[in-house]
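Continuing the batch. This is chain 6 of the set; chains 1 through 5 are on the previous pages. Same settings as before, nothing changed between runs. Recording input and output for traceability.
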Amino acid sequence: MQVGVPLADGKFSLEPQKRPILIHDMFRHTSGITYGGRPDGDSPIAAVWPSGGAASYMGTAKEFAEALTKLPLVYQPGTVFEYSLSVDVLGAVVEKVAGKSLGEHLSETVWKPLKMENTTFRLSDAQRAKVAQPFPLNPLDGKPQSIVWLDKQATFDCAGACAFGTMGDYVRFGQMLINGSSLDGKQVLSPAFVQLMTSNHLGAGIQNRVANVEPHREGYGFGLGVAVRLQPGLAAVPGNPGEYSWNGANGTGFFADPKEQLVVAFGTAAPGELRKYYREQMQDLIYGALRH
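Output for chain 6:
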C-alpha cells in the first residue's frame, strides 16, 4: 500500500510505506487505515475510502481486505491513532489463520466457554425480532434515521460492527476480563494477554487521537481494542487510572474499572451523535451512584 500526503490544493500525493502494517497496528488502530465518511474527518485521503463500514461491503472477508489494499493509507503505519476498519481486517486475518469463519472461531474460543448464548454474527428469525430499533427520527435534528444492518444480513463476519448480542452476554465477557481471564471457575483467556490487552500501547512516538472519536475520553490511551484511562483528570467523565472501555456501533457502550471491580455494558439503538451523549451520561450516573 501507499500513503497519502495532503497537498495545499486539497488533493494528495502518494509516498511509499516506511514499514509494513503489523498485527499490533491493527489492534491499536495505528495501521494508517481509516473509515470513510467520518463526520470528524476532512482528509482528502479519507474521502476516497468507502463509507458505511465493512458491513456495507458485498463480498467475502478476503475480498474486503484485498479491496482495501488498493486504497492509500492516511498515515504512515505506527505513527497516528486513527479509528478505522483495522478491526475488520484483523477479523479477516483470524479467519485465514484459523481456517474457519470469524463467528465459528469466536464461538469456540470465547462465546461458548463464557455461555454467551445470544451472541452471534448470524441472527435467527426469532433473535432478529427482538433486536432494538432506533427512533424513526433523530431526536437531535428531527431527520429520519435507521440502522440498515438490523434488517439486512452482512455477507461476511465483519469484526468491527457486525456481531449481535444481549447486554447479559456482554457483561459476562466484561466480568471475565475484570477477573483477569476467567469466569465461573473456567479460564477463557491468558491472564498475561488480558493484562497486555488492557494496557496503553500508544507510545511517545504515536499521535494520540482517541478523543477525536470519543470527546469525553481526553487523557485516555489505547490498548488492544480498548481505550485505557491514564490519569484521573482530563476526561469529562469520572473514573480511575486503568479503567478500560470501548463502544460498539450505533450506541452500545462498555467500560470496566479494575479498582472498583466494576463492569458496565449498556445498549441503545442510536446511530447518530446522540449516542456519545448517552455514553458520557451513563458513566457520570454510574460513578455518581457508587458508595464506599
